[in-house]
Every structure is written in C-alpha cells, then in structure tokens.
Amino acid sequence: MKAKKIGVIGAGQMGHGIALVAAKAGFDVILRDIKDEYVKKGLSKIERFLDKSIEKGKATVEEKKTILSHIKGTTKLEDLKDVDLVIEAIFENIEVKKVLFKDLDKICKKETYFASNTSTIPITDLASVTGRPEHFIGMHFMNPVPIMKLIEVIRGLKTSDETAALIKEFAEKMGKIPVEVNDGPGFVSNRVLIPMINEA
C-alpha cells in the first residue's frame, strides 16, 4: 500500500513543518490540532515560510498555491478516518499520546499506519495501546523540519518490515534521509546531542 493521504496531529513547531514538507512532495495533508486558533497559526506559519521562499527565489507563487491546496486544517480527529498515515507531533507526554493513539485506533481504517514524532518515548510503549503494533513506527523529524534532511525511523518490537519500508520511501519522497534506529531511550540524535549539551 502506498501512502497518499497524510494526517498530521499537532500544528505547532514540528507539526506544521511536517505538513509543509509532505504537501510540497505532493501528498494531501490534513493538519489537526485541538483548537481552531492553533490550526490557523500553523497554517499561517506555512504560508509565511513559503512567502520567504518566494522572496529568496526558491519557490514561485504558483508552487505556493499548489502546496497550500494540498493542506486542509481541522480540529476534528474524525477527519483523519480515511488517511493512509497519521504522524503525531504533539508535546512529549506519554499518557496524552497513548489516549490519542487509542482514539485513532478506533477512528482510522484498519490499513492506516501510525507514526510518532517523539524524540524520547519508546515506540513499543505507544504501539502497545493500539490493535496495530505492526503498523506503528517512530518518525523523528529534526527541527526546523523544512531545512533538516535527517529523519530517524524507529522500529518498535512489533513494527513490520513492510511498515519500515513504506515509511522510508515516504521520507525519501519528501527529500529526507531516513536513518533506521532501534527503539530505546533518546534514539540516535538525542543520545548524541544530550551528552554534548551536558558537557557544554
């Protein structure tokens, strides 16, 4: 199965960036947050980024229109019921994320893949609350998302090879470099960064 329609949950710093790079790659994106003001803020940040790209000669007005036409904002979780892939990019709270994925598991079609942008929470723990741990994976984007090329692809204990392959292909279509890492505290980038920060 190929991912064509993407749901991004969380319109903040990471979420709006993920929505932008996915839409730029031609995917249809539903950007969801809990309040309309958060959704609007995320969409306006995407628009501002594209305006700056036009000023720098890195994008055209036509390209901006096309990218924005691929993104729809919503506050309703139910609007994600038919997406092929959900990427969660909310704040780092395991209990809140677990509740969210439990709800998504009930709402989304059984073929939908789930990904979390977490940088610290074990993927296996999040996958365990769903009925589809084989379709669950970590996708840790680097900040700022439109600029940074690296994406950590984190397998949970039950993540299937098919899921990992699909997510890597999706990352590459967005012009990213996927690096597969094992599930564990902090994954690769944080294991490297945190000791450096501590030593600084």
Automatic annotation (TrEMBL):
A biological process term (GO) from this entry: fatty acid beta-oxidation
Name of the protein described by the UniProt record: 3-hydroxyacyl-CoA dehydrogenase NAD binding domain-containing protein
Family annotation (SUPFAM superfamilies): NAD(P)-binding Rossmann-fold domains
Any one GO MF annotation of this record: NAD+ binding
Organism: marine sediment metagenome
3-hydroxyacyl-CoA dehydrogenase NAD binding domain ranges (all copies): 5-183
InterPro entries, alphabetized: 3-OHacyl-CoA_DH_NAD-bd, NAD(P)-bd_dom_sf
Pfam families cross-referenced by the UniProt entry: 3HCDH_N
Keyword list, A-Z: Oxidoreductase
